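TA notes, week 10

Several of you asked for a full example with nothing omitted. So below is the full record: structure tokens for the whole chain, then the designed sequence directly under it. When grading your own attempts, check the secondary structure regions first.
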């Protein structure tokens, strides 16, 4: 990344420091990044953080809670919390596979998140596709997509999943999903994203 440098007068520097001290800090850690290049589209995003709420219905059962997710090109870390903020499961994925740690500190390992979450939690978390779907884009491979009147994804069908985008919000200059549902067979997931950080 190329940084442009310029000389600032002492008075202007003091003024800028004063302004930076007035900024409010959101709940999700967000640092000032004046040197960050603003991305033009979601296709350029390869790392993000999000926090939100998740609801799951499966086999006449249900779960609702909070979700915190950090995604990078080669790593995912997801924390699933109860509505009261207690840890339910932590999922870590990298090139070696997927590890799920429960609130009781029991560790389970598998090669993919869908198999592991179904075995331990009872429902499948489609992490391989979700890292693209939460951005409003299809994962590599065959997919069907319907757009809304603003040319944003409205419905995406891929790998047996139907993803419906119900609301969007702007984050870092991008229109990103705020509310979405994902269906497959008798599993339904609803995700409401309260905060986005694009890295």
């Amino acid at each position: 990344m190329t940084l442009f440098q310029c000389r600032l007068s002492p008075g202007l520097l003091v003024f800028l420091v004063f302004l930076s001290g007035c900024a409010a800090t959101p709940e999700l850690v967000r640092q000032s990044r004046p040197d960050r290049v603003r991305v033009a589209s979601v296709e350029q995003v390869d790392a993000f953080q999000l926090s939100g709420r998740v609801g799951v219905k499966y086999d006449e059962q249900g779960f609702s809670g909070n979700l915190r997710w950090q995604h990078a090109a080669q790593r995912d870390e997801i924390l699933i919390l109860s509505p009261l903020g207690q840890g339910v499961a932590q999922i870590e994925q990298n090139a070696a596979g997927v590890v799920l740690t429960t609130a009781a500190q029991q560790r389970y390992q598998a090669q993919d998140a869908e198999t592991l979450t179904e075995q331990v939690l009872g429902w499948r978390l489609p992490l391989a596709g979700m890292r693209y779907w939460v951005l409003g884009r299809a994962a590599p491979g065959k997919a069907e997509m319907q757009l809304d009147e603003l040319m944003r994804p409205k419905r995406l069908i891929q790998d047996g999943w139907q993803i419906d985008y119900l609301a969007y919000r702007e984050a870092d200059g991008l229109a990103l999903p705020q509310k979405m549902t994902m269906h497959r067979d008798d599993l339904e997931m609803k995700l409401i994203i309260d905060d986005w950080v694009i890295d």
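Residues 10-20 form the longest helix (11 residues). Use that as a sanity check on your answer.
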